[in-house]
């Protein structure tokens, strides 16, 4: 169960090598979290991430998880919840893709959509059902400001995040009053391995800053978190820019 400050004692990270996911895990372990599950494709990176959290004093277990293998999600995630209650699930997996390539290669675009949206819907529903069955817990979903309005430069990725965001909001409404808290996190450009080599957008942030925002959001029982917070105002304005004007903006 969570302590008085909203810190979970147990954490499941879907996307176990995600830089934001691991930054969040480190921050929570430094507070009170003692049990961490890292779910992801088996790799040296996953094992290294687990070792780092163990060095901080957490009990860490890794589990093979593939966002694209939706048929395995009930079995894989069910086994984790069968081991004991999970206070917080962080849905942190996702891929950026390559816009130019994905426009020319539809199957590559489909992989982005299936990972970021279809896989998240599957895993999210499985976890939500388990959280509801235990009667408590938080599901934190990493969305993106890219999902707020489709941009020419990354509309394939943005559309997948738009779908994820809408799904998570609806799921939060469906679970309201059940004891399960759903929080949608909308970071802007995050300096990470995934964005290495890309031109940095205004108000860029870091995995550690997103982790801090997640921790604060948990404590406040927030339903939506923007990182940085100023993006809420910026995106509100961009949503209402006429399309003919929006096309000419350098976005």
TrEMBL record:
Coiled coil: none annotated. Keywords: Oxidoreductase. It comes from the Bacteria. PROSITE patterns: ADH_SHORT. InterPro entries: NAD(P)-bd_dom_sf (IPR036291), Sc_DH/Rdtase_CS (IPR020904), SDR_fam (IPR002347). Gene3D superfamilies: NAD(P)-binding Rossmann-like Domain (3.40.50.720). Pfam families: adh_short. Belongs to the short-chain dehydrogenases/reductases (SDR) family. This is Decaprenylphospho-beta-D-erythro-pentofuranosid-2 -ulose 2-reductase.
